Amino acid sequence: MLYLSEILIQNPNLDSFEDLVSTVKERSKSEMFFRIDVKPQYADTPEDWEDRLEAAFT
Predict the structure, then answer these.
(1) pTM for the complete prediction?
(2) Are 4 and 37 in contact (CB under 8 A)?
(3) What is the C-alpha separation between 53 and 58, in angstroms, rounded?
(4) CB 40 within 8 Å of CB 49
(5) Residue 26's pLDDT band (boundaries 50, 70, 90)?
(6) What is the reported pLDDT for 48?
(7) Which of helix, strand or coil describes residue 5?
(8) Mean pLDDT within 28-54
C-alpha cells in the first residue's frame, strides 16, 4: 500500500502540487492501493486535492 505521507517523505524535492500529482502517477504503476493520510502543504494545493490525487493514482 502506498501512503501519501510516504511519497512526501521520500521526495522532499517536490516543490508543487503538480509535482506531487506526477509522482503519484508514476508510483501508481507499481502499487495497487493508495491511502491519503495527510494533506499536502503546497501553496498551489487546490480545494479538490483529494479527488485529484485519487484520479492521478487510478
Answers:
(1) 0.90
(2) yes
(3) 9
(4) yes
(5) very high
(6) 97
(7) helix
(8) 96
Angle between helices 49-57 and 17-27 (to 10 degrees): 30
Q: Mean pLDDT across the stretch 36-40?
A: 97
Q: What is the mean pLDDT of the chain?
A: 96
Residues in the chain: 58
Spell out the SS3 assignment of 6-57: HHHHHCCCCCCHHHHHHHHHHHCCCCCCEECCCCCCCCCCCCCHHHHHHHHH
